[in-house]
Write a structure and sequence with these properties.
Helix content: 55-70%
Shape: elongated
CATH topology of one domain: Isoleucyl-tRNA Synthetase, Domain 1
Number of helices: 5
CATH superfamily of one domain: Isoleucyl-tRNA Synthetase, Domain 1
Order of helices and strands: HHHHH
Mean pLDDT: 85
Structural class: mainly alpha
Length: about 110
């Protein structure tokens, strides 16, 4: 996915961007996006309550939401506008998982 991700701007070059506010998120995309927005909140709650399990549970739940999204929707080669959005969601999930696991003291692999 990393190699393919680096090529995506070239594939979109020359296309007009989608009209602003015209991309409707499907249920799986919404679930992933909602999950991403809770990261900082979960960090604060877990730190204040000395409960690292809250962060671990959050990361597991986010991974499940992303897996459900990935199983049902094409990322590369999807319709105009959706590809960029889906790549951004994918990159966001990867970064949040990496940051969360690092906080828990778990090393993350560069490739899977």
């Amino acid at each position: 996915m990393e190699k393919k991700k680096k090529k995506w701007p070239k594939r979109l070059k020359g296309r007009k961007p989608p009209p602003k506010g015209k991309i409707a998120l499907n249920a799986e995309e919404q679930a992933v996006l909602r999950g991403l927005t809770r990261f900082s909140e979960i960090i604060v709650i877990a730190a204040k309550s000395y409960s690292p399990n809250l962060l671990a549970n959050y990361l597991f739940d986010l991974a499940k939401k992303f897996n459900n999204f990935y199983a049902h929707h094409r990322i590369l080669g999807s319709e105009r506008g959706e590809e960029g959005l889906r790549l951004a969601l994918t990159a966001g999930v990867a970064q949040v998982l990496k940051n969360g696991l690092t906080i828990l003291g778990i090393e993350t692999p560069q490739r899977m």
